Each structure stands twice: as structure tokens, then as C-alpha cells.
Amino acid sequence: MNRVWAHYFGRGLIDPVDDLSPLNPPSHPQLLQELCDGFIQNKYDLRWLHRTILNSRTYQQSSQPHPRARATRRTTPHSTPAG
Fold first, then answer.
1. Long-range CB contacts (< 8 A, 24+ apart) of 50-53?
2. Through-space distance between the first and last CA atoms of the chain, rounded to whole angstroms
3. Contacts (Cβ under 8 Å, ≥6 apart) of 32
4. Quick one: pLDDT at residue 68?
5. Among candidates 8, 51, 12, 47, which has minimal Cα distance to 32?
6. Are 36 and 1 in contact (CB under 8 A)?
7. What sign for the dihedral angle of Cα 44, 55, 31, 24?
8. d(CA 33, CA 13)
9. What is 19-64 written as a DSSP string?
10. Of 31, 34, 36, 78, the residue nearest 58 (C-alpha)
11. What pLDDT does residue 50 have?
12. Spatial contact of 37 and 22, defined as CB atoms under 8 Å apart
């Protein structure tokens, strides 16, 4: 889930993507758990996962920050282009 999320948003729910340790918790643990549960329920269907992420409200948001939004490295109110 984390790698696919990072593919589309430039950063995973756990960042860095490969640092899966208790000392590096996800930014949105409930979202990560829901994606994991849905992926398992859908028999590990990658098309389901991609479709779910691409149809999400989060993915549909603009990549341009709102002028008054306070962005931080950990959580941003908009998507961050990969680079």
C-alpha cells in the first residue's frame, strides 16, 4: 500500500517508504490500515488498490497549495509532485 501511495503522491504514508519500523509511524495509520484491509478483502488485487487511490478525494485534490495553508514536511494539504 505504502509504495503505491508513494507512487501517486511522491511520498508514502510511511516516509521514507522502506523504513517500516515502530520508530517511524505512518502519517495516517487508519488510512493505511483501511487500504491494507481492503486489499486483503479484494484478494490482493492491485487493480482494486490503484482504482481506490485514484478515485479517492485525496487524489482528486489540486496539487497547488491553498494560499493560507500551512504545509509541513509530514502532512501537506495538497499533493506533492514526485521529484
1. 50/4, 53/4, 53/5, 53/8
2. 20
3. 1, 2, 13, 14, 26
4. 76
5. 12
6. yes
7. positive
8. 11
9. --STTS--SSHHHHHHHHHHHHHTTT-HHHHHHHHHTSHHHHS-SS
10. 78
11. 97
12. no
Alpha-carbon distance of 47 to 41, in angstroms, equals 13
> What grid cell was written down for 59?
487524489
44 is written with which cell numbers? 490482493
Count other Cβ atoms within 10 Å, centred on residue 45.
Answer: 14
CA distance 27 to 21: 13
pLDDT in tens, the chain (83 residues): 999 999 999 999 999 999 999 999 999 999 999 999 999 999 999 999 999 999 999 999 877 777 777 666 555 545 555 54
Amino acid at 5: W
